[in-house]
Design goal:
With about 270 residues, the chain is of the alpha+beta class. It has one domain. About 25% of the residues lie in helices and about 25% in strands. It has six helices and 15 strands. Strands 8, 9, 10, 11, 12, 13, 14 and 15 form an eight-stranded mixed β-sheet that branches. Strands 1-5-6 form a three-stranded mixed β-sheet, with no helix packed on it. The longest helix has 19 residues.
């Protein structure tokens, strides 16, 4: 869709002052309470969205372009994803194990994937997933976004769900897979995975459900945050404890918020060549 589907340049609406602040504090020792275990100590600079999800966006100089529909913010190159002092070394290690598993799942040997065509669309059936590890990865992203103080994640506020998910992460407990499930949509452009695009998380209403929408790693991640029982047809499209997951395939040109973002950038003359 125009130039939004090519190159290694897309991240959306990242607040530039946060990047400058991070760069200026690189070598500082910072002690505070860990957001997960609440223990006082030196905190690591943690990613919310893992660094390996940014890798496809980098050019030969290890840069990607930050784009914003804010007319006051010019396009800018950046060399790393957003990080903040959030977790102690032990908790950082705990979450990194699930990140490593997910990196290998999507970019390594992975698991068997079967394309299936249906009257309602095409999807990928993944089987043989370690349900516990992938589920904890999914929850960790949502939880980190909720506790983050970075403006990029300002739309994510889990309220009472935040502590419950944090307790599950601390105990390495995936919990009930029907509690805050994550639906995945594979985002493609020109027939290829659109892995060069990260979008600011947003609170959304989808069908009769309320939740949060993230875009990274060529996937749209819809987290359903509700105490209501989900319809049976929805339960078919998120991770099961047995390790299967159906991922619907969506063309970026047919996804309204992606299409509108590209149109806005083009009208402002900010869409890269």
């Amino acid at each position: 869709m125009d130039n939004l589907s090519t190159g290694t340049f897309i991240a959306v609406s990242i607040i530039l002052t946060e990047m400058k602040s991070e760069e200026s504090s690189t070598n500082l020792t910072y002690k505070a309470r860990c957001a997960l275990c609440n223990q006082l100590g030196e905190l690591r600079k943690s990613h919310i969205i893992p660094e390996f999800m940014f890798k496809p966006m980098y050019d030969q100089k290890h840069r990607f372009i930050v784009l914003s529909t804010d007319k006051k913010e010019p396009n800018k190159f950046n060399q790393k994803g957003l990080r903040e002092r959030l977790l102690c070394p032990d908790c950082e290690t705990r979450l990194s194990k699930w990140e490593t598993y997910t990196r290998d799942l999507f970019y390594g040997a992975g698991v068997p994937v079967t394309p299936i065509d249906t009257p309602s669309g095409r999807f990928l059936l993944m089987e043989g997933i370690d349900g516990t590890k992938f589920r904890l990865f999914q929850l960790s992203i949502l939880w980190r976004a909720s506790v983050s103080k970075l403006s990029f994640y300002k739309n994510v506020d889990l309220g009472p769900f935040e502590k419950q998910i944090g307790d599950q992460l601390l105990a390495s407990d995936p919990g009930d897979f029907d509690f805050v499930p994550c639906l995945l949509f594979a985002l493609i452009a020109d027939g290829k995975p659109m892995d060069n695009f990260i979008h600011i998380p947003e609170k959304v209403r989808w069908s009769e459900m309320i939740g949060y929408r993230f875009v990274f790693g060529s996937q749209i991640w819809y987290y359903v945050v509700s105490k209501r029982k989900l319809p049976p047809y929805v339960r078919e499209f998120y991770l099961s404890p047995e390790g299967s997951c159906r991922i619907l395939i969506k063309d970026a040109a047919d996804v309204s918020f992606v299409r509108e973002f590209a149109i806005d950038l083009k009208e402002m003359g900010k869409l890269p060549d």
